[in-house]
Amino acid sequence: MKLQNLLEYLHSLVPYSGANPEISSIENDSRKVQKGSLFICIKGYTVDGHDYAQAAVMNGAAAVLAEKILPLDVPVILVKDTHRAMAVLADAYYGQPSKKMHLIGITGTNGKTTTSHLIEKIFADAGKKTGLIGTMYTKIGDRTIETKNTTPDSLTLQKNFQQMVKANVDLAVMEVSSHALDMGRVHGCDYDVAVFTNLSQDHLDYHKTMEDYHRAKCLLFSQLGNTFEKSKPKFAILNADEPASVLFEKSTAAHVITYGINNHADIRAENIQMKSFGTSFELIINKERYPVKMQLLGKFNVYNVLASVSASIVSAVPITQIIQSIQSIKGVAGRFELVDKGQSFTIIVDYAHTPDSLENVLKTVRQFAQKKIFVVVGCGGDRDRTKRPLMAQIACKFATDPIFTSDNPRSEDPMAILNDMVSGVKGLSFEVIPDRKMAIKAAVERASEGDVILIAGKGHETYQIIGSKVYDFDDRLVAQDALKGR
Asked: Which residues are CB-contacts of 81 (< 8 A; sequence separation ≥ 6)?
């Protein structure tokens, strides 16, 4: 695509009348620039792309998009906001790929990963070719790609969407984080269905207040559009039991479908029964009742299933197919995942890293634990400090044997993080073991028949970040090694 043709997608107040080279790619990393690339200067938290513009030109960049004048030997196009411009240009360069498939976005504090995997499984079982973008990885058909963020930047997103279109993907489902919404990473994404799971305290290191966090989530629903097309209807799937849904409903022009357990909703679950091996309930849609027996545990997973059912129904998947898929799913890696090596007690690894998610998981554990409940839990460094004492309080309230340990301390002193946790539970019973491996080992050594160990916070992660270094660390493997030593 010629540079001037590409720039036509920006508004008319972006002046440019210079050379018109052929653009071979769009890049925001100077190391990936090749001959003919358009390099976009992005200001990040730690680096500024403007500082690498000269390096990009040396690597072959044909033009540079920037927020300030740069002394370069190639055309420099000035814009007020390169993040916004990048979303527009990436969508245009890759041929507006999200318009060429069915796109489902999921936002919420907890449940995004499980819900996205449930929806992806339902559509795959229905014979559709699927794509998935989220915390664990990006999946394009049968190909899996490692990811760094829950929701990639707009350039990576559109590139992934184009690859999905080339692979004949019918449906893509993706997790949409509050950071991505606030930063405009999903600008240009033509969502057909937007799903809300729940809202509780998280990411206040970034958003500062719950009101701002709520507002960021709201953007997904306001960005569903303001028109009605019979051939391509838009749907907002909202949790009727969450007060935050009221603002989301007011913020969208899309058709609103609600799901829930306690309040009136379009799609509901009643007569929920939970056992150690699974959960059963009655699914109610248009006064019709469908019995569901699934292998997933916990009331929180009933909500995830209801959200998945709702998104699938409005996407024209038959209810019988949906239920069949739901009942066959064993779980998602790192989400209430069992570590079973034949021991007489239960070990569960879960990603629960917010007060609400930890409480939900521990409440579920209490429904089948016969004796003691151990919880090994920490809090991430360089993240919301205000939730640390809350996490400790919930651990002490719902577990018999809380063990506080390190999560990903990053640049913070692990003991400072643990002291923040301890500040919320002074006078209560708990133990502090800073080394996560030793904490897990201690819980495994002390557990006996009928006990339950919950290892919380990291879930599917296979690393631990201490300082600036990333170490191999998988809670599941560490627990297995501890079992061998008993």
From this structure: 67
Instruction: Output the six-digit token pair for 280.
Output: 């059963």
Q: pTM of the prediction?
A: 0.88
Q: How far is CA 25 from CA 76, 81, 169, in A?
A: 16, 20, 23
Angle at 199 between CA 297 and CA 321, to 5 degrees: 45
Pairing of strands 346-350, 337-338: antiparallel
Question: Each residue of 92-138: pLDDT tens digit?
Answer: 999 999 999 999 999 998 899 999 999 999 999 999 999 999 988 99
Task: Give dist(CA 427, CA 44) in Å, integer.
Answer: 43
Please give the structure tokens belonging to residue 380.
């991430």
Contact 29, 3 (CB under 8 A): no
For residue 41, the one-letter residue type is: C
| pLDDT beneath 50, residues of the chain | none
Q: Looking at the chain, how many residues does it have? A: 486
Q: What separation, in Å, do the N-terminal and C-terminal C-alpha atoms of the chain show?
A: 64
Q: Which of 384, 415, 18 is nearest to 206 (CA)?
A: 384
Which residues make beta-bridge pairs with 178? none
Integer-rounded Cα Rg, in Å, for the chain is 24
Helix pair angle (414-422, 388-398), 10° resolution: 60
Q: Count CA within 13 A, CB hemisphere, residue 465.
A: 13
Say how far apart CA 91 and CA 9 lie, in whole Å.
9
- Residues 157, 185: contact at Cβ < 8 Å? yes
239-265 pLDDT, tens digit each: 999 999 999 999 999 999 999 999 999
Mean pLDDT of the chain: 93
Taken in order 397, 400, 401, 407, the sign of the CA dihedral is negative
For residue 476, what are the CA distances in angstroms to 364, 374, 460? 20, 15, 8
Evaluate whether 164 touches 172 at the Cβ level (below 8 Å). Answer: yes
Burial class of residue 298 in the structure, from the number of CB atoms within 10 Å of its CB (0-12 exposed, 13-18 middle, 19+ buried): buried
What is the residue-wise DSSP string for 387-416?
GHHHHHHHHHHH-SEEEE--S--BTS-HHH
Query: What is the full DSSP assignment across 365-380?
Result: HHTT--S-EEEEE---
Cα–Cα distance, 385 to 203 (Å, whole number): 9
